Amino acid sequence: MIGILGGTFNPIHYGHLRCAIEVKGLFGLEQVRLIPNAYPPHKESPEVPALLRAQMIDLAIKNHPGLVCDRREIDRYLQSPSKQSFMVDTLASLREDFPEQPLLLFIGNDAFNQLPNWHCWQRLFDYAHIVVMARPGWKAQAFDDLKARVAENAGDLEQAQAGKLFFQAVTLLDISATAIRESFAKQQDPSFLLPDVVIEYIHHHQLYQSPE
Questions:
Q1: Distance between CA atoms of 46 and 91, rounded to whole angstroms?
Q2: How far apart (Å, rounded) are the C-alpha atoms in residues 19 and 170?
Q3: Computed from CA positions of residues 24, 28, 31, 34, in that sequence, does the dihedral angle turn out positive or negative?
Q4: What's the number of domains the chain is made of?
Q5: Is residue 205 part of a domain?
Q6: What range defines the domain where residue 47 resides?
Q7: Which of 50, 76, 81, 83 is the most buried (most CB within 10 A)?
Q8: pLDDT per position as a tens digit, 17-61
Q9: What's the whole-model pTM score?
Q10: 124 within a domain of the structure (yes/no)
Q11: CA 172 and chain centroid, separation
Q12: Does 106 fall in a domain?
């Protein structure tokens, strides 16, 4: 099975990395593909270019086999700069690359609550299972038209390539990328929020120097 974790990763931090490593082990995934978006449809595009954000991901996961930085959304944007990064297009592309593998799209519970606002959100289930990551003890509630898709256990996700909804408790570290960017702008020390190698990269390229 292949895991998918998308986002701006602006910058990547230990909250992202802990989730990726944890779900990889919980679901016995062959790999987790971290996919930085170039032109997010639901928020302003980051000031830091997508290629630099991808390079920070590469540095952060260098010593973690099974974690992969997937640049397909960046490549699609470079080919067509007016095109937004819609997850349904990304999943369709991944399905072409992994025609026999179950695909697991991991999202947070806040993103799940906004799922009906996603572009062609019902079609996501044509290409992947959706796994909602939440804090232990969080009571999940599927929308009425999704209740039939809810899997009783993680093993059900191996029986089909796509189409199921599953809720999984994970360790969610309360780390904010916005707060990290502000700490760099204020010349504060962001140690222990993100890998040192990423901190060094940010300082070297003088990223996040002005307050948002």
A1: 22
A2: 7
A3: negative
A4: 1
A5: no
A6: 2-174
A7: 50
A8: 999 999 999 999 999 999 999 877 766 778 899 999 999 999 999
A9: 0.93
A10: yes
A11: 13
A12: yes
d(CA 3, CA 60): 18
Q: Can you give the pLDDT at residue 82?
A: 63
First to last CA, the chain: 39
> Among 55, 57, 52, which residue's Cα sits nearest to residue 6?
57
Sheet holding 129-134, edge to edge: 67-69, 31-36, 2-7, 103-108, 129-134, 165-169
Kindly report, residue by residue over 75-85, the tens digit of the pLDDT. 988 887 766 77
DSSP letters of 20-54? HHHHHHHTT-SEEEEEE-SS-TTSPPPSS-HHHHH
Dig out the tokens for 9 from the structure: 């990763």
Could you tell me the two tokens for 147? 């209740």
Give me the CATH number covering residue 95.
Answer: 3.40.50.620
> How many helices (H) does the chain have, and how many strands (E)?
8, 6
